[in-house]
Amino acid sequence: MAELTRDEQISILKEKLASAKSVAVLTGAGISAESGVPTFRGKDGLWKQYRATDLATPEAFAQDPRLVWEFYNWRREVLKPLKPNPGHFALVELEKRIPRFTLITQNIDGFHHTAGNQNVVELHGNIWRLRCTGCGTVTEDRTVPLPDLPACSKCGALLRPDVVWFGEMLDPTILEAAYEALQFSQVMMVVGTSGIVQPAASMGMNAKRQGAFVVEINLEATPYTGVYDLNIQGKSGETLPLLL
Ligand code: BV8
Ligand code: ZN
Fold it and tell me: Looking at the 3D structure of the chain, how many domains does it have?
């Protein structure tokens, strides 16, 4: 098929969305980039001389909880003044128009909730929630910065960010909700993710295998470009509003 122009790609996707009963969306750090949030693999993917894959692990937290909390306090500080962008708000509008809409996100910034989406599946947790390493109590706390080595008000044990670290299992209920949405989707959009981290990275193919029309929206190519049905190059904050 001759190369489609961007406008042709957009109108094909608009048509598919108009007749879709069930749509799934998977977002990654790219959808929050235009809000000013550093992505993982962009030039700002580095924090001091550390990589997220070195710090976002249970081993790092066990070995040096102060350093890992410094990393998360820095990210909370960066995130606090930032707001969702037109890409997030376009997904809120889309959810209102499509009978069954599931927004699966890898992001822990909570922007999809803030923007107003109802059915959000946070695969990797949420940076504004804390979980007690002792009694497991989960609280929401937006204090920036948190006290040094924050302690549980119930049992006094050390609190951790309520996020999924590398090497940790995702919550089975959360995963189940994501896979169910993929199973029944006629259209899936994979937005702003480099398609590296599993199991999220395979979700586009899961949808494709059961017959969904899968579209990638990204600034650059990923391992799935050319495998999905459409790859729309561009900023999600500019592309997603064009679908409305
Ligand atoms: C699991 C929360 C199973 C924390 C995150 C070896 C050793 C250990 C593990 C593994 C291993 N090999 C593979 C694994 C599995 C591992 C994994 O996938 N590792 C990778 C590095 C290879 N996965 C796991 O460990 C997962 N758990 O598999 O458990 C298991 C089985 C048995 C027993 C135990 C366990 C858990 C993974 C979850 C990790 N937590 N986040 C935190 O954030 O601090 S992952 C984190 O990184 C994010 O959540 C996100 O998922 C990922 C970043 O990826 P992206 O979102 O894609 O962001 P990125 O910067 O990469 O890309 C941005 C994209 O946007 C780019 O494509 C760019 O072009 C585009 N973009 C930029 N601007 C824009 C744009 N697009 C559009 N518009 C723009 N404006
Ligand atoms: Zn506790």
Answer: 2
Residue 185 and residue 237 in one domain: yes
Nearest ligand, CA of residue 159? 2
Same domain, 142 and 222: no
Return the ligand 1 atom nearest residue 41 CA: 60
Q: Which atom of ligand 1 approaches the CA of 45 most closely?
A: 60
Q: Please indicate, yes or no, whether residues 95 and 28 belong to a single structural domain of this protein.
A: yes
Q: Active-site residue 113, yes or no?
A: no
- Residue 138, pLDDT > 60, answer yes
Co-location of 231 and 182 in the same domain:
yes
What's the pLDDT score for residue 47?
63
- The CA dihedral of 15, 185, 88, 229, to the nearest 10 degrees, is -60
Mean pLDDT of 16-35: 97
Ligand 1 neighbour 12 (Cβ under 6 A):
no
Beta carbon of 174 within 6 Å of any ligand 1 atom: no
Is 103 in contact with 120 (CB distance < 8 Å)?
yes
The rounded distance, in Å, linking the Cα atoms of 7 and 242 is 9
